[in-house]
Design goal:
Radius of gyration of chain A: 21 Å
CATH architecture of the largest domain in chain A: Alpha-Beta Complex
Structural class of chain B: alpha/beta
Largest sheet of chain A: 8 strands, mixed
Oligomer: heterodimer
CATH topology of the largest domain in chain A: 2-enoyl-CoA Hydratase, Chain A, domain 1
Largest sheet of chain B: 7 strands, mixed
CATH topology of the largest domain in chain B: 2-enoyl-CoA Hydratase, Chain A, domain 1
Distance between the termini of chain B: 25 Å
CATH class of the largest domain in chain B: Alpha Beta
Largest interface: A-B, 52 and 54 residues
Amino acid sequence: MTNYLEFEKPLAEIEGKAEELRALARANPDMDVEKEAAGLDKKAADMLKDLYKNLTPWRKCQVARHPDRPHCKDYIDALFTEYTPLAGDRNFADDHAVMGGLARLYGTPVMVIGHEKGHDTKSRIERNFGMARPEGYRKAIRLMEMAHRFKLPVITLVDTPGAYPGKGAEERGQSEAIARSTEKCLQIGVPLISVIIGEGGSGGAVAFATANRVAMLEHSVYSVISPEGCASILWKDSEKMREAAEALRLTAQDLEKLGVIDKIIPEPLGGAQRDRKGTIESVGKALEVMLKDLSKRTPQQLIQDRRKKFLGMGSKGLAA
Amino acid sequence: MNWISNYVRPKINSLFSRREIPENLWTKCPECGTMLFHRELRDNLNVCTSCDHHMAITPRDRFEKLFDGGIFTEVAVPEPTTDPLHFRDQKRYPDRMKAAQRQTGEKEAMLVAEGEIGRTPIVAVAQDFSFMGGSMGMYVGNAIIAAAERAVELKRPMVLFSAAGGARMQEGILSLMQMPRTTVAVEMLREAELPYIVVLTHPTTGGVTASYAMLGDVHIAEPNALICFAGPRVIEQTIREKLPEGFQRAEYLLDHGMLDRVTHRCKMREELVTILRMLLGQPAAVKGDLPAPELTETPEPNEEASKADSSSKAEDSKA
């Protein structure tokens, strides 16, 4: 059963009809519906192409949050071997919104860290919808520190609505944890590569994405605030999220123009959720290329490059 | 002067219009309601003399009281691209900027200065909450980087006074990128082994707290300052329960290990001098070594006005 987004409703109708016809034909072997069904398929395919050709920023936000989009765990399961999760911040708890551990990417040992949103009600609650608490950032800091000492490249997979706005999280120093995590990203003398696979939500994302290379999936988003949040503050109306999404320039395409990200990884037609395996493979290939590119740099070069990259950011605005 | 002009007239005036109180002369403390005379308030660094409530203070006013003799030199900040995203909500971003500039008389939300406090040379940075909520955009990022670079160049410690609602949404992702950028600035100070002291003032929230404001060697906050990542309203909406009294206030953060000290604004300068001199291995400052900043004399308002003021003040506190 495919989950359709609101703007995909007309598509859902056509695909549903084709499916119904085929089901009917399976029940009555004499009926010949293939021609009609194929026509509907064609119509659906054209519509899909049309819908995804020029996704508006708000629609991209919806695709980036699609429940069937591959999440961190899917990438780790499919791309990495010998994944050995490492838990806890040695201080308070283990945050299940952040996954992390040792693993091999095409044979090379790396440290992989990422936000995990969960895929059903139970796992979503367990993962806190990918919203990390200070423990999550402190676990990441610990793992990055370890990677630095053992000279392992760090790969981060970013997919979070933002850091968790809760009472305990504030009491245990959410801000400090995020600040220290960003700082750790800047300090490690190993390649740090970040891929925004869904939502790059504000400070919660930056804490993992202050990297030598930042790549984004074609329909993922990365923003200082959610369009809903921005709309309710600046428009005083949270229903203005379409306008806010537009104004914030949060799409991979705009961010590449602004020089904030280095690479866009294309998604299959209709978004990552329509071909999860294919998407995961593209991300794997992109990671391999970026990793190879950075492997010859010395620790000092990696640290200096990272600093220079962020210091120089913002020198070009968005023309047009 | 007679009874009528001194008492009756102000009373009648106050009945019809409160506007008679010259606006710039008196400030009502938002906490305890005491009417505070402008000079008294100014001399007390905008802290209520009756209840110690810390009101907002502009970077310029703060620096005048912070630096020896009120003397400081501004450090130039590289100008960023204006309106990089061509952002428009209900208003255009450049229009919002112009309005803020007109209102504050400042160029942007951050002021960088070098000078001496208690004969200790420092570079100081202060954020201006009155300028678009002190929000952190590219200029603020550039200011912190310029300050850190200047501190490293002069081998001086850096003191930063934070006050901001968070990142400047109108600069979108580029405001978010000031989190790593300002963190690089802090790294520069660390590498040069220079002290970096953060003074957190009301309010310090969002991306500002989650970057340079929480990376100091020493964290000092002003009393009752709101310091948080997510604001109390957002949290109440998320967890749907009432938050405890004093939640996310300076004293609460002190209890939870996020701050070293909570210090009254009027004691801040002395405390900074004490801490910095120890960190820098300098001899203790002697009392006579701490010249109090010169006060620029504000002209006394004429007699009649001041009398009228005091009587309307009396009226007001009764009301």
